[in-house]
Amino acid sequence: MTDAIERVEIAVIGAGLGGAAAAALLAGAGFSVHTFEQAPVFTRLGAGIHIGPNVMKIFRRIGIEKTLEAIGSHPDFWFSRDGNTGDYLSRIPLGDYGRREYGASYITIHRGDMHAVQIDALPQDRVHFGHRLIAIEERDSDVLLTFENGRKIAAGLVVGADGINSMIREMLLGPEKPRFSGWVGHRALVNMDKLRASGLQFEACVKWWWEASRHIMAYATKGDGSEYYYVTGVPVDGWEHETSFVDSSREEMEAIFGGSHPVVQALIDATETVTKWPFWNRDPLNLWSRGRLVMLGDACHPMRPHMAQGACMAIEDAAVLTRCLEETGTSGYREAFALYEATRRDRATKVQTISNANTWLKEPEDPAWVYAYDPLTAQLG
Ligand SMILES: Cc1cc2nc3c(=O)[nH]c(=O)nc-3n(C[C@H](O)[C@H](O)[C@H](O)COP(=O)(O)OP(=O)(O)OC[C@H]3O[C@@H](n4cnc5c(N)ncnc54)[C@H](O)[C@@H]3O)c2cc1C
């Protein structure tokens, strides 16, 4: 590493789900983009993710839609069921209906698999792992970025895709820790042999509900049915750990959800490794950009994950931000960032609010305003 200052047109900070999308889309639009990620490498952590048609359209533009479709599971429905009786509270059609009505597939997939496809789609010499941003200096004609490894980059524009503890957010709005939401989620990939041995049917995408909106969201993460995953939502008194997650156990799952419907019991019985994650929150921010700095995704609108749209909003942000910069060119960044915020704020805030309330699709409702939306053609402003 060197102390010399290198120059880039656009620096994306964070190669997470939103940052990787921004890097791909901006590069596809002809901008010169470098992405800086603190992690030395990404690993396949045990977790799944839903990707709605609203974002599969963006993946089509990036050129990875077919690859993700081939890996992921294609649920025909999102079911909501009573956790004790198994009664159906809602059946939201997806599958062929979704493709027809919303313009793309709805998939559930292992987030590590999806992320790897996103990263592979980027020019590898422009993704810089092991680069933790530690200082930002806004200057007249650029932003000086200093990384922990000593590298210094002067960027024309900086996209803060650095997640809930964003340094860019801190630079714009001052230090403020996110608020613990009072909820945790347990995440587990279950043992498939034990699951099959139960002889029960496990639906491709189902949310089990108990009182006070406690729940288990369970779904397949591979199209061949070889992997099944669940994530819970459980209110707790507090979160006293310093780490981003802690180990949980089948016993803890049994204590919370034991004695429920037989399919839920089979999920608990098939649980071997399970982790527990705190859900953090922030109120909607009143500033998404300043000067040459702009934010997207969890950096500016983190949410509890109960609508399965947090990453989708980050990726939608990336698509709209790219379109705005295409309209103005990098020299018109002030106008582009204002247009971006004006286009995104209401939708992101609405999704954030519903997600935090944890009501999405519990009862029959029309999800078209989320899934049929096309961030590549929606009106700007
Ligand atoms: C349990 C759970 C389930 C979820 N399920 C879904 C779902 O089904 N569907 C959905 O759409 N969303 C889901 N989400 C939400 C989703 O995970 C987030 O909204 C999404 O990851 C946000 O993307 P992002 O790019 O903004 O941030 P992140 O994905 O968090 O990426 C931020 C990146 O920035 C890097 N970084 C941070 N600081 C620095 C620094 N100083 N220097 C360099 N790099 C840095 C980080 O290492 C990271 O790679 C879920 C979330 C949780 C917790």
Can you walk through the features of this model?
This protein is 33% helix and 26% strand. It has twelve helices and 18 strands. The strands form three sheets. Strands 1, 2, 7, 8, 9, 10, 17 and 18 form an eight-stranded mixed sheet that branches. An eight-stranded mixed sheet has the order 5-4-12-13-14-11-16-15. The chain has a two-stranded antiparallel sheet with strand order 3-6. It starts with a strand and ends in a 10-residue tail after the last helix. The protein binds flavin-adenine dinucleotide (FAD). Flavin-adenine dinucleotide (FAD) binds next to helix 1, strand 3, strand 11 and helix 10. Residues 8-352 form the FAD-binding domain. One of its GO terms (biological process) is nicotinate catabolic process. Monomer. It comes from Pannonibacter phragmitetus.
Task: Give a topology summary.
Layout: E1 5-13, H1 17-28, E2 33-36, E3 48-51, H2 53-62, H3 65-71, E4 77-82, E5 88-93, H4 95-102, E6 107-110, H5 111-120, E7 127-128, E8 133-138, E9 143-147, E10 152-160, H6 167-173, E11 179-189, H7 192-197, E12 205-209, E13 215-220, E14 228-235, E15 246-247, H8 250-257, H9 262-269, E16 275-281, E17 289-290, E18 293-295, H10 310-328, H11 333-357, H12 368-371
Parallel strand pairs: 1-2, 1-10, 2-7, 4-12, 10-18
Antiparallel strand pairs: 3-6, 4-5, 8-9, 9-10, 11-14, 11-16, 12-13, 13-14, 15-16, 17-18
Helix pairs in contact: 1-10, 8-9, 10-11
The structure holds flavin-adenine dinucleotide (FAD).
Subunit structure: Monomer.
Enzyme class: oxidoreductase
Catalytic activity: 6-hydroxynicotinate + NADH + O2 + 2 H(+) = 2,5-dihydroxypyridine + CO2 + NAD(+) + H2O
